[in-house]
Amino acid sequence: MQPVYITYLNRFDIEAAMLSDAEILEAIEASLGMQGRGETVIEPRMHLEPRAGVEGHFNVLRGWIGGGIDAAGVKVVGDFVDNYKHGMPSEFGVLNLFDPRTGKPTAILDASGITDMRTGAVTAIGAKHLARKGSKVLGHVGSRGTAYWNVRLLDHLFDFEEIRVHSRRPESRNGFAERLSRDLGKPVVATEDWRSCVEGADIVVEASRLSRPEPMLKTEWIKRGALVVPYGTMSAVELSLTDIMAKMVVDDWGQCKGGKFGSLRAHVEAGKLSERTLHAELGQIVAGLKPGRESEDETNLFWHRGLSLSDIALGHAFLEKAEALRVGHRLRYA
């Protein structure tokens, strides 16, 4: 057998090969279009809860993406909400890529940053197709994990006039606002409560880190014509939220319709979000098979649980750039 080598990109390699905002969005939107055209395979994520009494679990995401990428991938990412107490991020992830023709392993990547970037990109691309083109006010709840890339990539597309952020701990929300203000070059307001963060906003993102379901985001705060993007692990929205929506869109219905976790789990169980009430998967809209926003008055909802396809596509983009820059490590496998 010929020697088998694996390309390994650690966190420092990912930082050295950093993609621009435009490159991140391009890679993710292309993968969504491929999903919409049926050029991918995605399996619903699986969960592993290893220990009782610990606020955390592992997500296992699996998929294949064709086209010029042609790679199968498995990502394992931990989601442990109390990690901040130990000075660690809440999520650690590893992405493994394989040759889909032989099963040969081809790459291992630190996926913590990739997870944050691809989630932010999916949020932004969902807004690109479902929010008002002239959206100028963003209300974002949540300050850890994927939150930074949500705001950064949304602002890249919309250039907001007002950005409000909120999280439970003052030090967390204030630090988040300061970081965003510095990086985006514009004021970012840290609010003291949910209502002042989201009421009247054109785009509302709910990325809270609740330990149990609790209706913190009130339907009455959502203005007509807004886009709401709820994707916390635990539901933080009222059951009535879906009643005001003109269009409800998800990233993958196979993932959203089942499982224990997810911001609209109660809405699925109550039949408020179903194959009958679902407008489309985002990939169908990106591929031009279903319409996105069609009027200024539409109040829309986009729920995404996270796609293995996005991890694979963004991982592939990083591998290409790392190779061009001679960044990374070559490990002997066999």
Automatic annotation (TrEMBL):
Pfam families: OCD_Mu_crystall. Coiled coil: none annotated. GO terms for cellular component: cytoplasm. Belongs to the ornithine cyclodeaminase/mu-crystallin family. PANTHER family: KETIMINE REDUCTASE MU-CRYSTALLIN. This is Ornithine cyclodeaminase.
